[in-house]
Amino acid sequence: MSMPEVVHFVSAYARISSAPVRTSTAVTSVTRTDDGYHVVTDGGELQCRTLVLASGACNLASVPAVRAAVPPAVVSITPLEYRNPGQLPSGGVLIVGASATGAQLADEVQRSGRQVTLAVGEHVRLPRVYRGRDVLWWMDASGVWNQRYDEIDDITRARRLPSPQLVGTPQRATLDLNTLAAAGVEIVGRLAAIRDGRALFSGGLRNQFALADLKMERLLDTFDEWARDTEVDDGIAPPERFPPTQAPATSRLTLDLRSGEIQTIVWATGFRPDYSWLHVPVVDAKGHLRHDGGVVEAPGLYAIGLPVLRRRKSTFIHGAEDDARDLTVHIAGYLGAASRGT
């Protein structure tokens, strides 16, 4: 779906459901009361017995502390501040982070004529199209997206996984490190530190590539096994595999940020939620909500739309339905018990 189609979809849903949607209304405070929650907005106040937090997980840029060591002459921005390559100074650009955002920005900025250096840490590699169908079709049809949070061995790690290196284009092109390297992007290791104006990169680039390739191969094996078991092999293209990520012959371990080679650093290092308005003790030291499948550690408080909330698809639009159905049952049970005084 294109952006206008998504806007139309959401607007139509609001009309059909007849929900009392309040647009252009910011929540400034949520506090606990004896019988529920007090919600303060810039358009008035609300009282409720139960409250669902659907504010998402990508409200703020998550930038490492090493940013403070960047020399003053180098422009330092986050993806939330970035709009297009034209806003950047002429000269080289260091992009830190090679998940979906970092890979997409590296491609766009390199195409603008600026030399991009991409610092790569842990990442998730996926083809845009596999066996003639979009990879997200495979994720949905094979049941990968439906895996429940209580079936995952390390749920904390699953919720922290980087986003896949995918880009949406009419051509459904694959965007991976091989593609970026072929376009002239310089690939270096994870940014480990900045000392005396010099960026220091990890030397474990080959290991990062091998691990990402291995995980992709295992996922493709899962797709192929599902296709065989459900006998859909006849209707789609045969299994395929992709060239391994090619490590550069040499990869520099340091970069002098005072030399003028790099004029801009873009911190594509992820995002985090913003709960500064939530005055209920349910947020951990890292700023994440404490919850069990969306049931927050406070009576009558719930969340939806967070990574692997109840299923791997929880952060997608089509993942909200199943999660909402589960949470609705819990909310109804909570309200019923409260009305009975139990």
Task: Describe it.
With 342 residues, the chain is an alpha/beta fold. The chain is built from 7 helices and 20 strands. The strands form 7 sheets. Strands 6-15-7-8-11 form a 5-stranded parallel beta sheet. Strands 3-2-1-17 form a 4-stranded mixed beta sheet, with no helix packed on it. The chain is globular. The mean pLDDT is 95.
Structural class: alpha/beta
What is CATH's topology name of the largest domain?
A: FAD/NAD(P)-binding domain
Q: Major sheet, described briefly?
A: 5 strands, parallel
Ranges with pLDDT <50 over ≥5 residues?
Answer: none
Architecture per CATH nomenclature, i.e. the level-2 architecture of the largest domain: 3-Layer(bba) Sandwich
Count of separate structural domains: 2
Share of helical residues: 25-40%
Order of helices and strands: HEEEEEEEHEEEHHHEEEHEEEEEEEH
Text of the CATH class of the largest domain:
Alpha Beta
Q: How big a fraction of the residues is strand?
A: 15-25%
Query: How many individual helices?
Result: 7
| Structural shape | globular
Sheet with most strands: strand arrangement: 6-15-7-8-11
What key attributes describe this structure?
FAD/NAD(P)-binding domain, alpha/beta, four-stranded mixed beta sheet, 342 residues, 2 domains, five-stranded parallel beta sheet
Q: How are the secondary structure elements laid out?
A:
Elements: H1 3-17, E1 27-33, E2 36-41, E3 44-48, E4 51-53, E5 60-61, E6 75-77, E7 92-96, H2 100-111, E8 116-119, E9 129-130, E10 133-134, H3 135-141, H4 155-160, H5 177-182, E11 186-188, E12 191-195, E13 198-201, H6 205-229, E14 254-256, E15 262-267, E16 271-272, E17 278-279, E18 291-292, E19 295-296, E20 301-303, H7 320-340
Parallel strand pairs: 1-17, 4-20, 6-15, 7-8, 7-15, 8-11
Antiparallel strand pairs: 1-2, 2-3, 5-16, 9-10, 12-13, 13-14, 18-19
